[in-house]
Design goal:
The chain has 293 residues and is of the alpha+beta class. The protein is 27% helix and 20% strand. The protein has helices at residues 22-30, 43-73, 109-123, 130-133, 178-185, 282-292; strands at residues 4-5, 8-9, 31-32, 37-38, 95-98, 102-105, 151-156, 194-201, 210-212, 218-220, 237-242, 249-256, 272-280. The longest helix has 31 residues, at 43-73.
Length: 293
């Protein structure tokens, strides 16, 4: 009778595997027909492993779903948790424009057709507004000024609960352009409750770049503060630009209010938007060449 040590028989309970060629051993490591194992486990043990991980990940997914449900239950659908100075974007609104840049060939109508389609889509929400329907320039009817004097539309980015601190007629900034100062002084006190916009050619080509404001110079104060209401639309200022042809320029448009900081730093530019413009006119080039020759 075989002796026992610690309750186990000292004789072999299982004979060592016989020596086999390497390929056969590799195949048996994947599937052993004698023991009916796949990768060292029987179907029963594979079932136990799969059941364990199925339960584990199901519980994990349930815990994640409960956490997310709790999070969304305390969030407001319309108001951010952190606003103005407490938010990551801060309380200084950025300035945007549509289109972001203008570049086309006057001899190729498909170029500015694309711009007109883009602007038509952008301005579609404004079509039912009374103040918008009364405009005569920079509209679909005049092809938004294309191709000679294309229009750009300037607006402030939306910051929840932000309200402008308007500039009074007696406290106009010294660096405000003279034409805008004269424009503001000619308005009544109620008409001055606006965020003002001024644009200029960065290269100071005032003699060759003409800038007009057919809709006025201000973003009306009645549109603020932005509270994420249904149907809210941002106010716009239309800027009509007649640039020199065959010359790349950049028009910079700035917003004016006491609580809009202009160009904070090199790392944090703000309060303005740049609109690069390049209008190619081959006919003008040919006329210049013929005159010089």
């Amino acid at each position: 009778m075989a002796s026992k040590s610690n309750g186990l028989e000292t004789s072999w309970a299982r004979a060592p595997p016989p020596n086999r060629p390497f390929c056969e051993r590799a195949l048996r490591a994947i599937y052993d027909p004698e023991e009916k194992t796949f990768l060292g486990r029987t179907p029963k043990r594979w079932g136990i492993v799969l059941a364990f991980y199925a339960v584990f990940y199901a519980v994990l997914a349930l815990m994640f779903a409960i956490c997310m449900a709790g999070l969304f239950s305390v969030l407001d659908d319309r108001k951010p948790t952190f606003i103005l100075g407490s938010s990551l974007i801060g309380a200084n609104p950025g300035v945007a424009s549509r289109p972001r840049g203008i570049a086309f060939d006057t001899q190729n109508s498909s170029n500015f057709d694309d711009y007109m389609n883009e602007l038509q889509e952008f301005l579609k929400p404004y079509e039912n507004e009374t103040w918008f329907s009364s405009k005569k320039k920079c509209t679909k009817e005049d092809n938004y000024g294309f191709p000679e004097s294309p229009c750009a539309f300037v607006k402030l980015n939306k910051i929840y609960s932000w309200k402008p601190d308007f500039i009074g007629a007696t406290e106009l900034p010294a660096d405000m352009s003279e034409d805008l100062q004269e424009y503001i002084k000619g308005l009544s006190e109620s008409e001055r409750q606006q965020v003002w916009v001024s644009c200029w050619d960065e290269k100071n080509n005032s003699t060759t770049t003409q800038i007009e404001y057919p809709w006025g110079r201000g973003l009306a104060g009645r549109f603020y503060p932005f509270l994420n209401q249904d149907g809210y639309i941002s106010p716009l200022v239309a800027v009509r630009i007649t640039p020199p042809t065959n010359t790349l320029i950049a028009v910079r448009c700035r917003a004016w209010a006491k609580n809009i900081v202009y160009n904070k730093s090199l790392k944090e530019p703000s309060g303005y938007v740049r609109i690069p413009i390049m209008i190619t006119d081959h006919a003008a080039v040919n006329i210049t060449v013929s005159a010089t020759s």
